[in-house]
Design brief:
The complex is a heterotrimer of chains A (about 130), B (about 450) and C (about 500).
Chain A: E1 12-14, E2 18-23, E3 26-31, H1 33-39, E4 44-46, E5 53-54, E6 59-64, E7 69-73, E8 78-83, H2 85-89, H3 93-96, E9 105-109, H4 121-130
Antiparallel strand pairs in A: 1-2, 2-3, 3-9, 4-6, 5-8, 6-7, 8-9
Chain B: H1 9-19, H2 24-27, H3 49-61, E1 70-71, H4 84-90, H5 93-96, H6 108-125, E2 129-130, H7 139-152, E3 156-160, H8 165-178, E4 181-185, E5 187-188, E6 191-192, H9 194-200, E7 206-211, H10 221-231, E8 234-239, E9 257-261, E10 277-281, E11 294-298, E12 304-308, H11 315-318, H12 331-369, E13 373-374, E14 384-388, H13 393-402, E15 405-406, E16 409-410, E17 421-425, H14 432-445
Parallel strand pairs in B: 1-15, 3-4, 3-7, 7-8, 8-9
Antiparallel strand pairs in B: 2-10, 5-6, 9-10, 11-12, 13-14, 14-17, 16-17
Helix pairs in contact in B: 4-12, 6-12, 7-8, 9-10, 12-14
Chain C: H1 44-56, H2 78-84, H3 87-90, H4 102-119, E1 123-125, H5 131-148, E2 156-160, H6 166-173, E3 177-181, H7 191-195, E4 202-207, H8 220-229, E5 233-238, H9 250-253, E6 257-260, E7 280-282, E8 294-298, E9 301-305, H10 322-335, H11 339-357, E10 373-376, H12 378-384, H13 388-397, E11 404-405, E12 414-417, H14 425-444, H15 446-450, H16 463-468, H17 482-493
Parallel strand pairs in C: 2-3, 2-4, 4-5, 5-6
Antiparallel strand pairs in C: 1-7, 6-7, 8-9, 10-12, 11-12
Helix pairs in contact in C: 2-10, 4-10, 5-6, 11-14
Classes of the chains: A alpha+beta (about 130), B alpha/beta (about 450), C alpha/beta (about 500).
């Protein structure tokens, strides 16, 4: 069952359609409703290794549908502390619940100040409207 | 108007009017004047169909094909019998004139056939996954190197010197672009030494050896695969499909990939092409495979069907990060292989292999009886073997051909120290009496 | 229908082989096959029926209209199949000495001469096995050329966003890095975007002209000045050469390297995915780098020349896919200089179909086209929720192969139509009538489209399932259960459709 379009207020957004939920020195990352809708049903999640360093604006993995591949762009920098193994096994969870069960990785932030450069929900929705 | 065009003058008038232009020239106004071609193409005048056939018959008549000379040429392209069913089915216009099956509902037949081909290749090689074909037995070796580089993160490949020279040349052409260094491991007495291979493979992405190798000798395949595995390089066996009824499947002795030239299964010699290369791998490499792959699935009613699948590997989706740039492959030729193998069946393939082995043994013995010396007398061979003719082999070839026999391939073209050696090939299409004639002719023209 | 493996019964066999009374060969036990491959066991009648049934479930240009954009599905003359089967061609070994292959070498040499004339370039290698291999070969030539000139630091290849995916993939395989360039509102390369991206690090451009939009780049002369001015080379992807034979030559447009898709422009039957042929033609300055061997003429004799010290090497075995050369050579000799009429008819047919369809479908770049054009079903999607995929599937019900869809990527809901020159006006009209009827159905009976196709052997297939649980070969005794369901439903639906 696909999710309905939402952009929760408690998240921070990156213009490449990724979100971050920041909690203290850690952040949970995922892709937005818009991104999963554009891709269609996900069939593969190629995660980074736990312990890998990710850096803001760079690719940290890939998701695939049948006819498209999308790089995952890290909204923030840090070290991967956990990969969502359930999404590796059942990538369609991202379509069903992009902001909840469909999270992708958790990272320990190395540059917490980067959070300030991300978009809030309003600004991200504005960006979508302009596209 | 030429015979392949259907528009009449009246059609053209109506169409131009519907488009809203006065003349054909108007359609080409988007081409800047400076780059328009303003003369007639300097090509020979058109030929009618009968004249065309005559012209091509004249060209064909100037080739000494297998029906003109009694040929013992092999070296990668083989005169195996192509069953009549292959010709009959390949002439079906639906298969012959279809494009790549992008729309599965229109193309279930060719998709299912490719799925069956993939199954047959996996059965022959003992692998888990095969693609729908590569260009030929040389380019699939380059594909294997590209795959191995990305699978292992290593940037060197090792080639056995007893691997087909053209396969090695093609890998070397591609290697700089792939960022790969190529090393070769020499043969010793016609085969590759596992210890030497292990040493060379220490930091290698893959190791490619041929079974039976270019000289026709049986390599110690399981030992070579083990040596590569111990060094952490992927063992890749380049195999002859026709040998796999009697010789062990590479998957059964530890190889990561099996590749090869498919021509001997289902295809004519055709001066070197078009034929097909096959590439098959263990399941862990599925997502790194090059080219088209067909998969089974179901429609909304639960009915089984076939589609092109795992396409995110491919160039039209992954573009510069694709596992290969291959698009057009060799499907029709690969399907000829499937048909040949279906005609043979497991028992026929085994029998064909045994026939090649027995003829090979007979030929080795007859040529020795005729006073010739084997280059690698202590080796077991499949359908080819190397023999010394006591003088430049290229001269012996020319003299034997004047007597109506092409005695084989002059190995000096590719290997130093083998200027006086011929690579002789026997298939099921050469009888013992043919071999006797070869022995007689070589006894006359060689200098033992 | 069943797989050939499911029709197999132990003990059946189609083949007979000569049995010679000879002592057996010797194979050491450790190299001998332990378990035989499970190849099908059938007698000949069932082999023939099985593959004949697969043929009936396949659609070729012989079956009907096949306007698959960028694939140039034209008629394949039958005489070409006759001549390629002449024993002098079919049974000729590629290592036959030159004096025994004069006819084959002459044919290759003549084809080289023809392709040089058609492309407006100086030297040709027939060796590459297909267009994509021609591309990577062309890029290797660039590498070798610049290395030879001491300009090995040129590392970038410019590719427009309309390009076939093969172009960027070839760039990577040749060890280059990719620079994307945008398309402007008329469908040409965006010159402003381009100018900032070409410089001393640029090795070259890869361009398809006319582009995958079916549009000739109106600024090609300026593009040439930009690249040659920067000391870079220009590569022509010949996928769309069918539009310009005898009308405009890549060499005259400024291109230095060209590949020709023999299976498109010069009518090689494509056999459900291949074979093809991808010869490359180059300017004199690049000739020394071409693959070996070169086919050359010495007076009345033809020979293979391996003495090319600057050659990039070999990209494929022997001299290339010879059977493909025979067919394309025969095709061109049937036309002679009238090849121009072939391209003219291809362009006329495309513009006629475009004129009839542009009222019902959006035309993102509203210009006259060359040999193909790209429509968008975006209006149907917006108004009725009907996609390009739905239109394509519904076309099958009308008996046509669908056009290429969702390509090029820059056009949403793209429908890329290439009628080719060999169709009658009646066929083109029937296709246009179907496309217009489908546009009406999108409004009136959208379910008809969403559930299409209705009379194929299978309905729309679950491609997600195919990726998530890949079944890439028959599993024999362990084959997944869906096969059992399929067999049951198949039995219920007999007799089968096409």
């Amino acid at each position: 069952m696909p999710a309905t379009e939402t952009y929760p207020d408690d998240l921070k957004y990156h213009s490449e359609h990724d979100w971050a939920r920041v909690e203290h020195e850690e952040a949970t990352l995922g892709i937005t409703w818009f991104a999963q809708d554009a891709l269609g049903e996900l069939v593969h999640f190629e995660p980074p290794e736990e312990g890998a360093q990710v850096s803001k604006d760079s690719s940290y993995g890939e998701v695939e549908s049948v006819k498209a591949v999308s790089e995952l762009i890290a909204p923030l920098s840090g070290e991967v502390v956990e990969v969502n193994g359930r999404v590796v096994d059942k990538p369609e969870i991202v379509n069903e619940d992009p902001y909840g069960e469909g999270w992708l990785v958790r990272i320990r932030l190395s540059e917490p100040d980067e959070v300030d450069s991300l978009l809030d929900a309003e600004a991200y929705k504005q960006l979508l409207a302009e596209q | 108007m030429t015979r392949f065009l259907s528009l009449t003058d009246a059609d053209r008038e109506e169409m131009l009017e519907a488009i809203g232009v006065v003349s054909l020239d108007e359609l080409f106004e988007q081409i800047p004047r400076g780059v328009r071609f303003d003369r007639e193409l300097a090509l020979d005048p058109a030929l009618s169909e009968p004249e065309l056939v005559t012209h091509l018959e004249e060209l064909a008549a100037r080739n000494a094909h297998a029906g003109v000379e009694l040929s013992f040429l092999g070296a990668g392209i083989y005169d195996h019998y192509v069953p009549a069913v292959v010709d009959a089915i390949l002439s079906r216009g639906e298969l012959l004139t279809a494009y790549t099956p992008y729309q599965p509902e229109m193309s279930q037949g060719v998709l299912q056939a490719i799925f069956e081909y993939q199954t047959a290749v996996c059965e022959l090689t003992g692998m888990d996954v095969s693609n729908a074909s590569g260009y030929d037995g040389t380019t699939v070796a380059a594909d294997a190197c590209f795959l191995a580089k990305h699978a292992t993160g290593r940037s060197k490949v090792v080639l056995a010197e007893a691997l087909h020279p053209q396969v090695r040349q093609v890998v070397k052409t591609y290697a700089p672009g792939f960022g790969l260094e190529v090393t070769e491991v020499p043969h010793h007495g016609g085969i590759t030494d596992p210890d030497e291979l292990r040493e060379a493979a220490q930091d290698a992405a893959c190791v490619i050896f041929q079974q039976p190798n270019f000289f026709g000798c049986l390599e110690p395949g399981p030992d070579l695969a083990a040596a590569a595995n111990e060094a952490g390089g992927l063992p890749v066996a380049h195999v002859d499909p026709i040998s796999l009824g009697v010789l062990e499947a590479p998957g059964a002795y530890g190889c990561a990939l099996a590749i090869g030239e498919g021509q001997g299964a289902g295809n004519y010699q055709s001066y070197g092409g078009p034929h097909y290369g096959f590439i098959a791998a263990r399941s862990e490499f599925i997502r790194r495979m090059p080219g088209r792959i067909v998969g089974e699935t179901v429609d909304a009613a639960g009915k089984r069907g076939y589609v092109l699948t795992l396409q995110t590997r491919e160039q039209h989706i992954r573009r510069e990060k694709a596992t290969s740039n291959i698009t057009t492959n060799q499907t029709l030729l690969a399907l000829a292989g499937l048909m040949h193998l279906s005609w043979l069946g497991p028992e026929g393939l085994r029998e064909l292999g045994e026939t090649c082995l027995a003829l090979g043994r007979y030929a080795r013995e007859r040529l020795q009886d005729a006073g010739l010396e084997l280059v690698f007398p202590e080796r077991t061979t499949f359908k080819e073997f190397a023999v010394r003719v006591g003088r430049p082999a290229s001269e012996v070839v020319m003299e034997a051909r004047r007597k109506g026999v092409h005695p084989g391939y002059a190995l000096g073209r590719d290997y130093q120290g083998l200027d006086d050696a011929l690579l002789v090939c026997v298939t099921e299409r050469r009888s013992p009496a043919d071999v006797d004639r070869l022995a007689t002719v070589l006894a006359e023209v060689a200098a033992p | 229908m069943k797989l050939v493996f499911e029709k197999s019964r132990p003990g059946r066999r189609a083949s007979t082989l000569p049995r010679y009374e000879l002592p057996p060969g010797d194979v050491p036990d450790e190299l001998r096959r332990e378990r035989p491959p499970r190849l099908p066991e059938l007698a000949e009648p069932e082999v023939v029926r099985h593959f004949s049934e697969l043929a009936t479930r396949t659609f070729g240009i012989d079956t009907g209209f096949y306007p698959l954009g960028s694939c140039t599905m034209k008629h394949n003359p039958r005489v070409n199949e006759r001549v390629v089967a002449l024993p002098g061609f079919r049974d000729l070994h590629p290592l036959q000495e030159e004096d025994g292959a004069q006819g084959a070498l002459e044919l290759e040499w003549r084809l080289q001469e023809i392709l040089a004339e058609v492309t407006g370039l100086d030297a040709v290698s027939l060796q590459p096995a297909a267009g994509s291999q021609g591309e990577v070969t062309g890029l290797m030539l660039m590498r070798a050329y610049f290395a030879d000139r001491g300009e090995g630091d040129r590392a970038e290849i410019v590719v427009p966003d309309t390009a076939h995916g093969t172009n960027p993939a070839s760039v990577t395989m040749a060890g280059y890095s990719l620079v994307d360039v945008r398309t402007d509102r008329r469908g040409n390369i965006d010159l402003d975007d381009l100018r900032g991206k070409v410089g001393r690090r640029t090795a070259g451009l890869m361009l398809t002209n006319p582009s995958t939009l079916g549009l000739f780049d109106e600024n090609i002369e300026e593009i040439q000045r930009i690249f040659h001015g920067a000391g870079a080379l220009m590569y022509y992807d010949g996928a769309n050469l069918n539009a310009v034979c005898g009308i405009s030559r890549p060499g005259d447009m400024g291109f230095d390297i060209v590949h020709i898709n023999l299976h498109k422009t010069f009518s090689q039957p494509h056999g459900g995915g291949g074979p093809g042929g991808g010869p490359i033609a180059v300017r004199k300055t690049l000739e020394p780098f071409l693959p070996v061997p070169a086919v050359v003429r010495d007076g009345e004799r033809f020979r293979l020349d391996y003495d090319r010290p600057k050659s990039i090497g070999k990209v494929r075995a022997f001299t290339g896919p010879f059977g493909v050369f025979v067919r394309s050579y025969a095709f061109i000799r049937a036309y002679g200089p009238a090849l121009r009429e072939m391209s003219e008819a291809a362009v006329l047919n495309a513009n006629y179909v475009l004129a009839r369809l542009k009222e019902a479908y959006e035309l993102p770049f509203d210009r006259l086209c060359m040999h193909e054009f790209v429509l968008s079903a975006r209006n149907l999607k917006r108004q009725y929720g009907i996609t390009a995929l739905d239109v394509a599937k519904r076309l099958m019900d009308y008996g046509f192969h669908p056009p290429t869809i969702y390509f090029p990527l820059i056009v949403p809901e793209a429908l890329m139509v290439e009628p080719t020159e060999t169709e009658t006006k009646e066929t083109l009209d029937a296709f246009c009538d179907a496309m217009l009827a489908i546009a009406r159905e999108a409004e009136e009976e959208p379910e008809l489209l969403r559930e299409a196709p209705h009379d194929r052997p299978v309905g729309r297939l679950d491609e997600v399932q195919a990726v998530k649980r890949p079944i890439l070969k028959y599993g024999f005794d362990e084959h997944p259960v869906q096969a059992a369901t399929a067999r049951a439903s198949e039995a219920a639906q007999a007799p089968k459709g096409v």
